[in-house]
Amino acid sequence: MPRKAAHFKTRLYAPLDAADRESNRPDFAIAIYPGRLALAENSIALNPNIKSHITPQTPPTFLLQNEDDHVDSIEDALSYYVGLKAANVPVELHA
């Protein structure tokens, strides 16, 4: 899961200096063979834990997924793609 892209507002530690007060939103995200994003097998419904963090401020994203991956299915990438499109986030999917 592109965690930092979807959860960039969450800090992992308290700010220590001025650099820590800068935005930690990445300029872009690349998710290669993303997994565990769909709500269920053979579904493109996005997991609500991810969906709740997708906003128009989510960084532009490049998705790459093999259509015959036997571990993480194409539906995982498709569900994230649809979620990003719904939030008007620039996204590109290559399968």
Describe this structure in words.
Helices cover 22% and strands 13% of the residues. It has one domain. It has three helices and three strands; from the N terminus they run αβαβαβ. The chain has 95 residues and is of the alpha/beta class.
Output the keywords:
alpha/beta, about 100 residues, single chain, 3 strands, three-stranded parallel β-sheet
Task: Enumerate how many helices there are, as a single number.
Answer: 3
Please count the beta strands (DSSP E, at least 2 residues each): 3
Provide the helix percentage. Answer: 10-25%
Low-confidence stretches: none
Structural class, judged by helices and strands? Answer: alpha/beta
Please give the radius of gyration in angstroms. Answer: 14 Å
**Strand content range:** 5-15%
Q: Kindly report the spatial arrangement of strands forming the biggest sheet.
A: 1-2-3
Question: What's the main sheet like?
Answer: 3 strands, parallel
- The number of distinct structural domains comes to 1
- Output the helix-strand order: HEHEHE
Q: Overall pLDDT, averaged?
A: 89
Instruction: Give the termini distance in whole angstroms.
Output: 17 Å
Shape: elongated
